[in-house]
Design a protein that fits this description.
This protein is an alpha+beta fold. Helix content is 43%, strand content 16%. The protein is built from 9 helices and 5 strands, in the order αααααααββαβαββ. The chain has a 5-stranded mixed sheet with strand order 2-1-3-4-5, with helices on both faces. The longest helix is centred in the middle third of the chain and has 22 residues, at 75-96.
Length: 232
């Protein structure tokens, strides 16, 4: 057994015995790269990635073409790294979609956050609820900023009607890392609430997500829903 193979085996055994809790970022990356670089010492690659991008989250969220610029990181390794946050999002979303009742702002926010894991672009989702606040679906309605010019109010209304929703919650992310609602966020919320009211659907809230945090426009006093079954 070579030196590299012995090191790989020890790292794998440690992971199987302890999990990742006591691993540093370099060892996590090193372990992950084993499966894209089966015969290479991945420690220098892991360190090069951290030196260039700054942290494990920044490595995993980097565009694939930027990862491939690092010497030794080929298409397979870059694809594996970018797959991780998307698998995390897929797992968390599917885990959450199990006949849940979302009757509070807090529950809605926690339910929605996984939809934005690893997203680098601003994306808008519509969470549709029935009369008992049971989640019917959560659909992406647009990728782009939340403003009257870019968002399709008609599409949102049609999505809510198609799901037979009684209540909906709008959600979008701020990839910049600040979950504070903008003036455009507030204005679009009011326009959308008026449009939904004409078809007897209540916009219960608009949630702005950033990293592991979210801000509710209703809870923060930026928006007052009418007839909502979701408790603020």
């Amino acid at each position: 057994m070579s030196i590299h193979e012995g090191h790989r085996q020890r790292l794998r055994d440690r992971f199987l015995a302890e999990g990742l809790d006591h691993f540093d970022q370099r060892h996590v990356l090193e372990l992950l790269l084993f499966y894209a670089q089966p015969r290479r010492d991945t420690a220098p690659l892991a360190q090069a990635l951290l030196d260039h991008f700054g942290s494990l989250p920044q490595v995993l969220e980097a565009p694939i073409e930027e990862l491939e610029k690092i010497s030794g990181i080929g298409t397979n390794a870059a694809a594996l790294l970018t797959l991780i946050p998307q698998i995390s999002r897929y797992y968390m979303v599917n885990r959450a979609e199990q006949n849940v009742i979302l009757n509070t702002t807090e529950k809605c926010g926690q339910y929605l956050m996984p939809y934005f894991i690893g997203r680098r672009n601003e994306t808008v989702f519509l969470l549709c609820l029935d009369a008992k606040c049971k989640a019917l679906c959560c659909k992406e309605v647009v990728e782009g900023s939340v403003n009257a010019a870019s968002i399709s109010i008609r599409r949102i209304v049609e999505t809510a009607l198609g799901a037979n929703a009684t209540t909906v919650v709008l959600a979008h992310n701020h990839p910049s890392g600040v979950a504070l609602p903008s003036a455009e966020d507030i204005q679009t919320t009011l326009l959308l609430a008026d449009a939904l009211r004409t078809v007897e659907i209540c916009l219960a809230d608009h949630v702005v997500v950033s990293d592991a945090d979210f801000v509710s426009l209703a809870q923060s006093g930026y928006y007052t829903p009418r007839g909502s079954q979701v408790r603020i």
